[in-house]
User: Fold these one by one.
Assistant:
Number 1:
Amino acid sequence: MAELTHMIDSEVFLAFSTYATIVVLKMMLMSPMTGYFRLTKKAFANQEDTSLASSTEDKKKMVRVDPDVERVRRCHQNDLENIIPFVVIGLLYTLTGPDLSTALLHFRVFVVSRLFHTVAYVLPLPQPSRAVAFLTGLVITISMAYRVLITALYL
Amino acid sequence: MAELTHMIDSEVFLAFSTYATIVVLKMMLMSPMTGYFRLTKKAFANQEDTSLASSTEDKKKMVRVDPDVERVRRCHQNDLENIIPFVVIGLLYTLTGPDLSTALLHFRVFVVSRLFHTVAYVLPLPQPSRAVAFLTGLVITISMAYRVLITALYL
Amino acid sequence: MAELTHMIDSEVFLAFSTYATIVVLKMMLMSPMTGYFRLTKKAFANQEDTSLASSTEDKKKMVRVDPDVERVRRCHQNDLENIIPFVVIGLLYTLTGPDLSTALLHFRVFVVSRLFHTVAYVLPLPQPSRAVAFLTGLVITISMAYRVLITALYL
């Protein structure tokens, strides 16, 4: 692997920092979106949360499962399962000293595929929209993992 | 971004390592806590797990959902959704070379907010205790992400 | 902590990169495994997904919960809860400059314990197989966290 002193100020590292931050922020926005749906649908997971929505209505009925809330939560879960591996493997990939253009291609395609994945999940769009978005992100991460393994392999 | 050779021995990096480790350990403790509640409440997710609790009782009835177990699991899930983004963005933030006092403020407020979040969720405390703890952590992570983006932006 | 310039080309860092990539790839393979079970069991989470399996059958009945799908999903969730902390704390541990043999022992035992955990969960094997695999991984991560804290402690 390249010396990190040179890597850390490199354009590849700056690009990784930028795209990783953007896609992690996108993932974090699923929490407020879940909160918004819970408030508007009046569908909460905890008894104590019902006081956030209303002080007069029947609170026991507000601890319930709502299909739209669950859809946003599944989207959030899929982000956790895919964006975190991208960040971990992407950092190691960045440290292998890839070409800037190749690295940018990986980062940009991944971030666009995950933004599209969220749109396809929440609206929802007909399949295979979401499946294609998911698989695109998976292939990008596996491609970066392959470069890490052929560059750094030490078992 | 600053050269990492200087960053890695810096007090900001040591502080990040310390607080990130503490808050990830806290998150990991939710697993044994879930196990404790599953054993004491005799509420398991898998048929084979019931043998861990008892060898004589009716095991089919022990594969069930318990409200207290689910509460701990939701707390754990919220940790995953918030602590992992803090660690990822916090590492990139550390590499931007922030002032030590500003960095410590971010790390300390985040860790305290997440410790309080766990207490507020598990007891539970009345809302908006947990909502305030959650939002505090979110704001801290967004503040660090903002600095990463204005320092490293490379699209 | 040691200077990262020396660390990044070290055998410990190469070993960490290798084992972290392998265990994250293993975690990511749970997604296609979930997809495979959803397709063969015809048990989907979203109405729009049913078109991926069949165009003629009753699609409403295919939005349902299947025990085998849920088992794979719980295994995936347990990976998220344990493998991500290993990667985060393992990176910080690597930067503390541990002995190569000690580091390799940590990485190898962790990866083997998580591979065995997956086998024990999906088949499933009788308990306490899975519990032992889980606890082994937890102890490894706590051992690395301990070294990070005694080396880098800065509160």
Number 2:
Amino acid sequence: MSKKIVIIKTHKDEAALALVKDTAAKYGYSVEVYGDLDEAKPHLEDAEIIHGMGMGLLANTPNAKWYCIASAGINGYDADYFDERGVLVSNSSGTYGTTIAEHIIMMATMIMRHMFRFDELRREGKWLSFKEVTDFRTLCGSKILVLGTGNLGATFAGRVRSFEPASIVGVSKSGREVPEFDRVVKLEELDAELPNADLIVMCLPGTPETENVLNKERIALLSKDAIVINVGRGNAIDEDALMDALENDRIAAAALDVFKEEPLPEESPLWKTKNLYITPHVSGQETAHVTRELNMRMFCEDIENYCEVRPLKYAVDLRRGY
Amino acid sequence: MSKKIVIIKTHKDEAALALVKDTAAKYGYSVEVYGDLDEAKPHLEDAEIIHGMGMGLLANTPNAKWYCIASAGINGYDADYFDERGVLVSNSSGTYGTTIAEHIIMMATMIMRHMFRFDELRREGKWLSFKEVTDFRTLCGSKILVLGTGNLGATFAGRVRSFEPASIVGVSKSGREVPEFDRVVKLEELDAELPNADLIVMCLPGTPETENVLNKERIALLSKDAIVINVGRGNAIDEDALMDALENDRIAAAALDVFKEEPLPEESPLWKTKNLYITPHVSGQETAHVTRELNMRMFCEDIENYCEVRPLKYAVDLRRGY
């Protein structure tokens, strides 16, 4: 069997890929990079290590011993298939916190500072005196509630801390303390926190347990000023209940980057919902150089672990879902 | 003479105003609040302390002993007039850093993440696959250059630090060290810094010395990736040279909140300049509750100083311009 690593990447970032090539060469591995699965297919049969996304990358890879999934989310992968093959599986959780934190802070400030309205006026060439401007809000002084205290939630919390929010409370299954948060509560205690939050940031993985975490009953507990931002997985919000709350001004606004169905269909009523701001799952992804570099650095760490016969640092449990 | 304080405020913020009323009462002063100068006029003649904006507030205030200017900028005030009257003058520098830092980070991330384009697509109900997304940039890893190391520049630098930029360099007249910056250089050394900056943030006061600091020659020194954000005063940029650089893709983008002429006239070519994003002088202003409260807290400090016959903490030199 040839000692071959195949990387499947939409955005080829030569500087980031050079890191992997250097590490691989140390252990006598070659590295091949392809833009998508179709391009990669003829070259997968003898690959030992594969870095990419989607169940499709498993076809015709009889010699693969380790699959590194390029995303943080690992929902949609068939755990049985991996088990039967007895292969290693890792993911890329930790790659996306940096870029997603910038997305969250961007969307929160855009909503708090009426930027969607100001940008409409800009397109029309219209100046609006500050005397006519309705109240801006600020991250400074805001009460922030973060669902999910992993890499996404903690990186955001670490960055937003410098804006001097009134509080940053985390919510997780275990309720285990994480230093970036003032305190972390268990999911069972979520309901008590919801009425006090100015900004609710959802960074949850897509598992059966996170299905509709923000359901109709919980949306009803939110304050009129609440802003909801979802950058985790779309399954975590009851989209119909959210639309209803927004259309009736029961909460202030929402910014969704992830949806139950992606791409979001053209006919989805979410597009036209009042005070709902949609981005097409770009808060993370490998759209930024820092992300691509971090992704490759983490892969390098595990190439070293793999070659030195140590456990993979980023190994995942597909049944648990993270 | 009656012991009377008059405050002229567009946005009446009862919580913030209560702070002043409490402090004033301690020293036997009454406080009157009016929405604008016209409303205030009949009540100014016997006022001893006046808090507001614009030269107009000096008319018919023969008994005033102290004017507190509600803005940080004090360009446009006639120093001779104040001198002749022998009155105290203070300003509100320190009030706006918090809200302006949020504006800068919002505009920088919006540009770096192509948010103006994504928002157009949202309005049209169009999803764009991340595969078609051109490169995002991040504050993380960016080289940031800040002109002006006072309250605005330092507050922004303190907040953006948590995003892990590659560097934060300040520029000031004195070059004096300020802890929020990696280093501070003198204005004479600006030219050497310009080619290396990914993000140039301008936080300068409007003085004769800051006139066209970013002139045609300096704009020519910027890199093709440079993003320019101005939140200080509009006099600091040669607007024609900036438009020319943007239209010819010699720099990446600019976000202007301040202009040589405000309101920006409808016929200004700035409105339609490529990659130029305009906001109507709302980065600061008293549009946010934190700003209004901070503004009143600072005023309270100086009410105590005034009543205890100590120097005003926020006294300004109108001839120097800050």
Number 3:
Amino acid sequence: MTSVAPKQEMTPATAALMARRVATIGPHSPLFYDTPLELVRGEGAWLTDAAGRRYLDGYNNVPHVGHANPVVAEAVSRQLRTINLHTRYLNHMVVDYSEALLETFEAGLDRLFLVNSGSEANELALRIARQHTGRSGILVSDFSYHGNTTSLAELTTGLAVHEEFGTHVRAVRIPDATGLDAQAEAALRDQALAEVDAAISSLQEAGHGLSASLFDLIFSTEGLLNVPAGYVEGLAQRVQAAGGLFIADEVQSGFGRLGSRMWGHQLYSITPDLVTLGKPMGNGHPVGAVVTTEALLDEFGGRNMYFNTFAGSPASCAAGLAVLGEMRDRALMDNALATGKFIADAMQQIAKNSPLIGAVRGQGLFFGYDIVRPGNAQEPDAAATKALIELMKDKGVLISRIGRDDNVLKMRPPMVIEHEQAQLLVDRLAEAVAEVTARQG
Amino acid sequence: MTSVAPKQEMTPATAALMARRVATIGPHSPLFYDTPLELVRGEGAWLTDAAGRRYLDGYNNVPHVGHANPVVAEAVSRQLRTINLHTRYLNHMVVDYSEALLETFEAGLDRLFLVNSGSEANELALRIARQHTGRSGILVSDFSYHGNTTSLAELTTGLAVHEEFGTHVRAVRIPDATGLDAQAEAALRDQALAEVDAAISSLQEAGHGLSASLFDLIFSTEGLLNVPAGYVEGLAQRVQAAGGLFIADEVQSGFGRLGSRMWGHQLYSITPDLVTLGKPMGNGHPVGAVVTTEALLDEFGGRNMYFNTFAGSPASCAAGLAVLGEMRDRALMDNALATGKFIADAMQQIAKNSPLIGAVRGQGLFFGYDIVRPGNAQEPDAAATKALIELMKDKGVLISRIGRDDNVLKMRPPMVIEHEQAQLLVDRLAEAVAEVTARQG
């Protein structure tokens, strides 16, 4: 997924920039592609590199309402020229934004803490859960990532961290029902929920108890898994029955990305206790949130002097309001549904013509392809996946990959992607799949 | 320091805003003043409230180069209209800013991690230290605050948190040499350093060992203490001799606030292993950093896939660069020295005329007054301190307070404060001190 040692030639200018980068933020800060891409300009779903070449962005969800969105830029700019202070003085912006954001949630989830990142949001959600329950145990998926603090490193299963996996954490395998009939799907669900039961019992027997579960409910880091019907409901029921708080991490699935729902957890018949937000929230402005109930906010607020210097400042809220405004004014959830369906249908067609492609995954404007050994839909092919990503870049389209076997092509364009751009994306994808298939064959 | 239940009448409009705020971010989010102040506009060191009344900002350090600074607003705005992406693609802004920032540090401190807040910076510094040492013990001051994550809550001594104080943390009392002669000062230093020795031994005996110390080296939360000569050097020597990493938290003391030095740790003959930055860094844009050595960056980077979605993005770096540019172009450290000396001299004069004032504290543009019972410089008077802050607000000047006894007046205006504004600040301060002194007498 990332490359720290560029393998191909760079232009002298890019090589010089790369050397200066290594001499400041170091050689380990991850970069995409064998030859890192120097991007200098964006507009909507387009990006332009230092050589003036244009790329279609099929990957980035942070620029949710489009690269260099002028409405967001103007809102932040206007606020920075007016006032931008912390929340120890009153200002209407934090209230205006909080109301607008909370309106998108179901009844009961009507309070929030504003923070500066998804990491800060998950960190705070876990503090709230530990304090509420008086217990420490946490349930996560066995291939996931929720942020870069110590508490979150201790429960990271989806990338390299030096910290030992927490003795107070249990990781469960998320079931994938792709291709199963109803009976097999139900059996898989029951088996996976039995694993959840065992994990909760194990935490209780070890004396940790269960404080919270923390899941991205579209299981994107795991590879955009198709969980069996009833699995998430069973998971939430078990967590809450054990007295734990159910945390829905919406950093990937939120803000209408799925088209059909504003929030990923709304795909299921569940009520999370805490919902954490990040990436697309400010179109790149650092902002995150924990949405919760009045009771949980009150309990935590009464026990802790919680303050966050930057969070809730008028400029952060202006960015957030502009994102919600653009989503509404440009009907971007409708676009996620319609353009998403167009891309998904085309992906199904492409898949039919290549033995390289196993499952087709995703919904709304979030797509995945399992890339497998021809003739064996169960055998992941990370090398072919990498080849596809590099080839797509050569063809002017940026995508990436996810999953425990590094073999799920990940496509997640800005929500403003237009029909012609979607057509370009699937045309280039068809070509790339054909070329890599021919190489393999 | 904060008030959650407004005690005085608000205008109907402000009361309505307050009610909406309580119904979204809740009643516990801290607010200054008996009657919360609704601020709607800023310019330089001026702030304007909803009724159109103007206040001199004698408190806020986040708007370092001035409220609504047009250079910062323009830099962020231009970048938001161009491109604003994470660091997995190359872009010159993260390199330009990192180089400019690292140039202000001494040799050896020549690498950095960019993050989104001071909390994220201290959180990361502790991760680096724990991994480097393989130990968990932490040394802090017994009245300090370094951020709002779980790891930082466990070592918080300066405000209310529900978490139990970490068994792996030792808190030492910071010595204040104010008013002592050289011999007494040396004795106090030796006694305080013996306490440090004991704390480190205690961590070692308990099996935690020492991973790091974490101090704000102007001891501002503690009340802007005047530590004995040689204390900080002795502290650093002991921490590093025990194999611990010495973390300098520059969230309060950094970015030229002290006038004489860019960084607070440069007041002493020490070399920190890690330096953490936050508040003033982006003039309110959420940005922070951990500055460290190549060896420590390499060790941590090699062991962990560390990535931070928002940090290092071009807009964050544009804000940071604009702050450094304004500091240079407007010679703001010179202003901190000159205007700071003017205020400090005036504060000494005012102190002579009031038995309410014990020590006069601070340097550069960071000032404190111990407010005490008349006739007893050792007996803190929190009520009189509060009265002074409210009275200063009535007179159109915003200040606050710090310290374990809530009795140290805290003045820390934006770095752009002008001579006439400084004159206004000390004139109003003289009036307020005289009035509260008369009330007490």
Number 4:
Amino acid sequence: MKTPSSLTLLTESLRTLPGIGPKSAQRMAYHLLQHDRDGALQLSRALAQAAETIRHCALCNTFTEQVICDTCQDGERDTTVLCVVETPSDQLMIEQTLTFKGLYFVLMGRLSPLDGIGPKDIHLEKLITRATDGVVSEVVLATNFTNEGEATAHYISETLKARGLRVSRLARGVPVGGELEYVDAGTIARAMLDRRAT
Amino acid sequence: MKTPSSLTLLTESLRTLPGIGPKSAQRMAYHLLQHDRDGALQLSRALAQAAETIRHCALCNTFTEQVICDTCQDGERDTTVLCVVETPSDQLMIEQTLTFKGLYFVLMGRLSPLDGIGPKDIHLEKLITRATDGVVSEVVLATNFTNEGEATAHYISETLKARGLRVSRLARGVPVGGELEYVDAGTIARAMLDRRAT
Ligand SMILES: [Zn+2]
Ligand SMILES: [Zn+2]
């Protein structure tokens, strides 16, 4: 008894998704082929289109389809303050608090030596170039308050202060161990207002 | 702050996968774009190819790229016995036991009135046509021993017996290696009622 090769390939491809084991991948493949072929084709197109069109903003490093993202192009922003976040979701959370009118830099990760994630993986050179443009005077570190996020903030702080920049950190209004994405906007707003020099 | 439309579309498309909520979908989208664009393109191709090439075997209803699947084309099989299973995975499990040399019919589901899954969804007409070909003389019901699987077996049994076919069911009992102390009472009761001479 042989499984059709295109079904095997689909199951194996689904397994490359984070958090999907062999049983889940098989269930997904069966579901798509049995009940949702339109969904399979739409997901196929969405994957191809995103992989082809999504790039990183030349200034803030977030996902965008342009060279410079909408936020970085926004003329109303305070160009002297730069907020450093781990992910686009974290940036969105901060935007929703309406407490920050500066610009962002999105690391797309955090330092994690045990997982082999070093300064290059969080685009530290790009951040240094961005932060030392002569316009930015303060960098607010808004990485998560996890061990890795704190270590990342510390490392970036040392690096940027050595280049004469003022560096601050969100206040510890955010619960220790908490991830920004899951914290309520009021807490983040308080932490932004209480940010302190590091 | 606007999320790029192709990223939004990708996240929404991933959410249509069974068991994937908004947070998981976003994490998957970020992972693919950040770390595995080749994986994204491969999954895109696998989805399109499977959706285009996978059909249901005209005889046994399983997934195949041909009109008739390899198993149904196998000349070594006993064409007088048909084993009814819920999914291709169940068929594979039975194949691995090497105890069955007949042919199969794959329901691609089980009756579940509460979920709106009726006889049409498990291809009952196709099964009746297959089982009444004049060659099949016995149908072995190997649906799961869940409430829904049992109800499905009962329904199919009544339908096929009314057409003069011999219908059997996998034996219920204590699992091989099972210790009575850890087997539920219902299973032991069934094993007692179904006890066989040795
Ligand atoms: Zn940008
Ligand atoms: Zn077949």
